[in-house]
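for the writeup, i need someone to sanity check this before i put it in the appendix. the sequnce is what the collaborator sent (i think, or maybe the updated version? ugh). structure was predicted straight from it, no edits. if anything looks off just tell me and ill rerun, i have time this weekend
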Amino acid sequence: MVDNLFSIRNKVVIITGSNQGIGEILAKGMEKNGAIVYRIDKKFSKSTKTKKRIHDKVCDIVNSKQIENICKEIFDENKRIDILINNAGITLPENAEKYSLDSWKKTIDVNLTGSFQISLEVLSYMKKKRKGSIINITSLNAEFGFPDNPAYVASKGGLKLLGKSLARDWGKYGIRVNNLGPGYIKTKMTKKSFENKKTFELRKARTMLDRWGKPEDLLGTCIFLASDASSYVTGQDIYVDGGWSANGLSSK
């Protein structure tokens, strides 16, 4: 049945960087569709106590010991880890000609190294079941050069190819790794551009659908990649960008 094909019911899902924005919406949406969701973040500003199948775990993904402890806790509680969504990310834009090494290191540590560390930790648990799905939340920045943010562009490009590398190496364990690349989505991270009338219109016009995306626009693709509907899909890049990456010429 089609319903069962796309089912994520009772699957154990870890979502990093899920206190707000895309991660928070994915957590709520996947829980609504029957998953057991673990939100991972450095802090939580909103309680999820009303959601019986969403659990909050405070963890800095840059800290390897914390990652090890949290993943063990989750596995001990459920005897399985089915899905990891590497969503945690920061952006520190600066003048590209004077970009600081500190901002570079911070961005790479969270966006790339942190995702690698938790993927490696989750591997040991997914191997036990000979099955699992890892979804990296990349970006249009993984494909194109955007201004004044070299660390973010490099980290997302690196995450994209990390996904392909892990898909190649871990496929023998039944573990699939795919990249989901959002276009311009209205979140706290893009608030400045969204509220600037000029940049808002420029980015909207670049899409084929003539609108910015919402975090909810990513949920369906994420469920597809997490479910058995994508059981033969690995090492792929799927862009949810309103057609931005395929648009040769703006209509305006």
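Residues 108 and 155 are 5 Å apart (CA to CA). The chain has a mean pLDDT of 92.
thx in advance!!
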